[in-house]
Write a structure and sequence with these properties.
- This protein is an alpha/beta fold.
- It folds into two domains: 2-135, 3-Layer(aba) Sandwich (Rossmann fold), CATH 3.40.50.2300; 143-198, Winged helix-like DNA-binding domain superfamily/Winged helix DNA-binding domain (Arc Repressor Mutant, subunit A, Orthogonal Bundle), CATH 1.10.10.
- The chain has helices at residues 11-22, 36-46, 62-70, 87-95, 108-119, 127-136, 143-151, 158-165, 169-183, 188-198; strands spanning 2-7, 27-33, 50-54, 77-82, 100-103, 124-125.
- A six-stranded parallel sheet has the order 2-1-3-4-5-6, with helices on both faces.
- α8 crosses α9 and α9 packs across α10.
- The radius of gyration is 18 Å and the shape is elongated.
Length: 201
């Protein structure tokens, strides 16, 4: 029996997926969670064979949960499911040790088969997302440029971004200018939109 912890902040989806997985003879959902911290606690308590994590959850996203767990429980396979799959997210997830990555649009049978593959030590990546990731290439942004761009996403002034990032305002302007130039756009708002579309922030 493959023991599973399932985490998704959308209750209806989480409960429906849990019921569908429990219909499989060889799968058992031993705990569910509605946030990143709840998922961490459930996985540490239950020590499942596979954790199925939503990419976007309050408290900590699926990749952050995976990064925290894989050092503690390297035998636990991590599968990320998402309704917002972007090439950058896929690359970041695989780089953190996630072994399965698929959109929420796949049938339940595909999720069940992915869980079995990951539990057996294999990997599964949705083919369409993989092709998009290859086509998109690597992010041209440095980690600090991506951080500053993310902080600029809600239209915050440079002084506020500088305070939140513990940087000087001039440094923030330099990071934003560099990001705009690297992405080939005309302003930081376009840079945020493009970087988000690629999953780079």
């Amino acid at each position: 029996m493959i023991r599973i912890v399932l985490a998704d902040d959308e209750t209806l989806i989480r409960d429906a997926v849990a019921r569908l997985l429990d219909l499989e003879d060889d799968l058992e959902v031993v705990a569910v969670a509605g946030s990143g911290p709840e998922a961490l606690a459930a996985i540490r308590r239950e020590r499942p064979d596979v954790a199925v994590l939503d990419l976007q959850m309050p408290g900590a996203d699926g990749i952050e949960v995976a990064e925290a767990l894989l050092a503690e429980q390297p035998a636990c396979g991590i599968v990320i499911v998402t309704g917002h799959g972007r090439p950058g997210h896929l690359k970041k997830a695989l780089g953190s040790g996630v072994r399965g990555f698929l959109p929420k649009s796949v049938p339940a049978t595909v999720l069940a088969d992915t869980i079995r593959q990951v539990a057996a030590g294999g990997r599964y990546v949705d083919q369409e997302l993989a092709a998009e990731a290859i086509a998109a290439g690597d992010s041209p942004l440095t980690a600090r440029e991506a951080d500053v761009l993310e902080l600029a996403a809600d239209g915050a002034p440079v002084e506020e971004i500088a305070a939140r990032a513990a940087l000087a305002p001039g440094t923030v302007r330099n990071y934003l200018s560099s990001a705009v130039a690297k992405l080939g756009v005309t302003n930081r708002h376009e840079a945020v939109r493009l970087a988000r579309a690629k999953g780079w922030v």
